[in-house]
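Holo prediction — S-adenosylmethionine.
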Amino acid sequence: MGDYDAFAPIYDDWSAHMTEDVDFYVSLAAEARGPVVELAVGNGRVAVPIAERTGRRVIGIDSSRAMLDGARARAKAAGVELELRRGDMRDLEPDEPTDLVICPFRSLLHLPTWADKRRVFERVAASLRPGGRFAFNSFVLSPHRAAESDGQWHEQQGIRHHIAHFPADNRIDITLQDDTRVSLWWCTHSEWDGLLDVAGLEVEALYGWFDRRPFDDESRELVYIARKPS
Ligand SMILES: C[S@@+](CC[C@H](N)C(=O)[O-])C[C@H]1O[C@@H](n2cnc3c(N)ncnc32)[C@H](O)[C@@H]1O
C-alpha cells in the first residue's frame, strides 16, 4: 500500500486536464438515495464536488495516506465532510448496503491481475443494494497511440514523464524524472464485460465519453454504468 504517496505532490497538476468526468459522477450521485462510495478516492477531485452539490454522505477509500491528506484538505477548503478511510479497494466492506459505488479516472487499472479486479467487482456487488449501481471508466488501449508513446518522454501540465508499454503484461509504466513510477494494467472491452458478468452485475449503459455519447469503434474511453439486478 502507499505506492501513490510519491505521486501525491504533483497529482493536482497531473489530473488538471480531467474535468469532464465530474458532472457525470455528480449526476449519478444525485440519483442515488443513500451513501456513495468512491474507490481510490485520491485527493477528492470527484468526491468533494459530489458532497458539495448533492449533500450525499460520501465514503472515500484509498491506499495512499498522502492522497487522503490531499482529500482532507480539499474537503476542508470546500466546507464539506468526507468519510475517508485508508484501505485497499480489494477489501471493500461498507457498513451498510450502498446505492452507488464509483471508481473514476481509470483507478481500477492499478490492480495488476484479473483476480485482483474480479475481487473488487465481487466486493462491489456484495456492497450494493439490489438495483444499486457501479460506475467506472477506463481508456481504450489503442495500439497506434501506444506505438507513438512507447519509450518516449512526454509532458503533461509541465510534468515530464516517461511511458513504457509491456504488452505481454498488458501494462503501462509511467515514470517521473525522480524515478517515481506508477503502473497501469489495462483491460479490453470484453474483459470489463467479463468482470461484471462474473460478479453478477449487469451493464446498464456503456458510453464512449462522459457526455454519454454511445460507445463505438472510434471511442477512446469506456464509461460504464453497471447495475446489481433487483
Ligand atoms: C488516478 S488516482 C484517482 C484519484 C481520484 N479517484 C480521481 O478521480 O482523481 C488513483 C488512486 O488510486 C489509489 N489506489 C491505487 N491502488 C489502490 C488500491 N488497491 N486500493 C485503494 N486505492 C488504490 C491511489 O492511491 C490513487 O489515489
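READOUT: The longest helix spans residues 65-78.
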